Amino acid sequence: MIYRKAVPLFFVGMLALLLTFPGCDDLITETNNITVYDTTLGLACFDCHSDEDNRLIRPKAQWANSAHASDSLLDILHDLNGSNYTVNDCGPECHSHEGFIREFDSLPLGAIQHYNVIGCFTCHMPHTGNYGTWSDSTLRALGEFVYLANDSTFVMGKSNMCVHCHQAVNPAPAAGITSDVLLTATFGPHYSGQADVLSGKGGFRFADSVVASSHRSVADLNGCLRCHYLNGQGYSFGEHTFRLEHIDGVDTTQYLAACLGSGCHALLENFHDVIGSGLGYYRLDSIVSLADSLETLLKDRAFLDPADPAGMRLMADSVIPADAARILYNYLLYKGDGSRGIHNPRFVQALLTESVVRFDSLPPAAAFSASVTSGCAPLTVDFTDESKGNVATWNWTFGDLTGTSDQPNPTYTYDTGGIYTCSLIVAGPSGAADSLVRASYIQVYSTIALFTASPLSGCSTLVVDFQDLSPSDSILTWEWDFGDGVTSMEQSPQHNYDSTGIFDVRLIVSDSCGWDTLTYPGYITIADAVPVAGFFASDTLGAPGLTVFFTDTSSGLITSWQWDFGDPNSDDNSSTEQNPQHTYDEVGTYTVVLTVKNECGQGVRFETDLIKIE
After folding, report:
1. Are 17 and 136 in contact (CB under 8 A)?
2. Is 80 exceeded by the pLDDT of residue 572?
3. Rounded to an integer, what distance in angstroms lies between the CA atom of residue 222 and that of residue 214?
4. What percent of the chain has pLDDT over 70?
5. Residue 180 in 3-state DSSP?
6. Nearest to residue 395, comparing CAs of 435, 419, 366, 425?
7. What is the secondary structure of 116-139 as a DSSP string?
8. Which has more confidence, 222 or 324?
9. Beta bridge partners of 535
10. pLDDT class of 48 with cuts at 50, 70, 90
11. In this structure, are 414 and 543 located in the same domain?
């Protein structure tokens, strides 16, 4: 698809006679295009061109005041919504003289090295035809109709040539599109959708009503040319300027002459639904107001660049709902048309009205902020809904598995420390919804003591490394008590246990939020020798089903017990309890073994044939 840059006025058809044109050299050398030789043929030039003939000078000056004469169309780089495009990218057929000619002569456009601005020859072919029928009204690219991008046709006589360029390049997103639309730099109708507006078939209609096209009647009057090619007043209005106002301001007299002189409006009364006394544009005032409202709404939702005063720059590379893309397209069609609705007031008013109404049905864009995002527990946070669009319902979750709210701007208190993810779901009146999740958004600090140590047991002397694991990053003090009368103020100290025993370890931490303490009872075990195993049994003789209670009498520091009851046919022949019990169900004699351990080694006690079952 070729994208074209703006030409704010209609690319019109009729130009003046040429200053120089192909064929003059042949005329002067007595050769014409029907191979008739006539020594006086060169004199025929003066039949059209004389010293007093102003048909060349005046149009040339008027043309200089037209947008088509601007060499800005040939700029090396055109900025389109943040992306740069060359003349070749945009479409040389509408940006240059050579491109327009080659497009309709089916010649390759890529072969053009140096483009020239649109000029007389671009539209006119005055010396084409048989001698005697040459005319300054012979135009290029005329046909019975022109296909528009929206698959409709444009049929307005000589204006069909203008419409080859003055039409929307892309159609609006189709009704069948339901997924979100990616805004590329070239999204939209582009800058010259006059034919679509004039014919009343452009944009996207959200309603089913039929709207009469205000200016369709000009189809029988060569369309664009009927209004824009009026008798010029000086070099700044009418004819080859195609302007309906002076460059330096609006002349209402000329506006009135344009409307009445076109033959469409014979009397001022014909303007009653559009133009009133003093040329107050009642319907057009409504159109401008609607367009301003849409611009505000589109910028508020960042579908348009809020920083662009012209209201035409897209937020390219963003993704928006399908209906939002259609609304944006309608707005851009109005802006690119450049007539403020004059080309088709009824149609444009309906298009913009429907777009404004549909805007309320768009899903809102969820957004929110918090009064604070970090602090000590309990932390009270005021949440503020900043969603764009029409919001009917709110659904908040605060990340602690219990806190929710359906208020637009809730307040919530976090009682415990942690990092919390918050979310907001907003829905419009139609039920269309959007959500926003802010991961790890709220951080609540509470003073928590936490530590670990390694190793946890051993023989004296044992060196133990203690590691502070308190989650706060703002701990100010650490107080360690290792349980053997020794303390430390280091964050992660190392301690040497010289005495034997089982020791409780305690850590107290403090920060700007307060203090906390953590104690691990019996955390460190220190032994000085191998333990001596010993035990006794409650009964040693009995019948099957005898339950025996064993009591540990071992000496020394013991960290584990392992019993073997000598009953391999039993499902519970062993135990790691200090004082276990066992039931003997079968007749026999049983040997009981106890193994006790600590970090220094192990001790074993055998009681052979201790238990007798008869």
Report:
1. yes
2. yes
3. 15
4. 80
5. coil
6. 425
7. ----HHHHB-TT-SSTT---TT-B
8. 324
9. 552
10. low
11. no
Mean pLDDT (whole number) for 401-407:
95
Nearest one of 183, 189, 184 to 150, comparing CA atoms: 189
Residue 269's pLDDT is: 47
Identity of residue 117? V
The one-letter amino acid code at 446 reads S
Residues 299-310 have a mean pLDDT of: 93
Residue 159: its pLDDT value, please? 87
Give domain status of residue 554, yes or no. Answer: yes
User: Which positions ≥6 away from 55 have C-beta within 8 Å?
Assistant: 16, 17, 136
Q: What is the pLDDT of residues 177-203, one digit of tens each?
A: 999 999 999 999 988 899 999 888 889
Q: Look at the chain and report how many structural domains it folds into.
A: 4
Region 322-339 average pLDDT: 95
Asked whether residue 421 falls in the same domain as residue 548, the answer is no
H/E element, 547: strand 546-552
Half-sphere exposure of 441 (CA within 13 A, CB side): 20
Give dist(CA 417, CA 399) in Å, integer: 12
Average pLDDT, the chain: 83
Instruction: Mark whether 474 and 546 lie in a shared domain.
Output: no
> Domain check: are 584 and 504 in the same one?
no
Would you list the DSSP string of 377-415? SSEEEEEEE--BS---EEEEE-SSSS-EE-SSS-EEEE-
Q: Are residues 16 and 158 in the same domain?
A: yes
CATH number of the domain where residue 380 is located: 2.60.40.10
How far apart (Å, rounded) are the C-alpha atoms in residues 32 and 167?
Answer: 39
Of 524, 521, 528, 522, residue with least CA distance to 500: 528
Q: What local confidence, expressed as pLDDT, does residue 427 receive?
A: 95
Q: Classify 228 as helix, strand or coil.
A: helix
The pLDDT of residue 284 = 74
Domain span including residue 22: 1-167
Neighbours of 74 (CB within 10 A): 19
Are residues 151 and 22 part of one domain?
Answer: yes
**To 5 degrees, how large is the angle CA 530–CA 532–CA 535?**
150
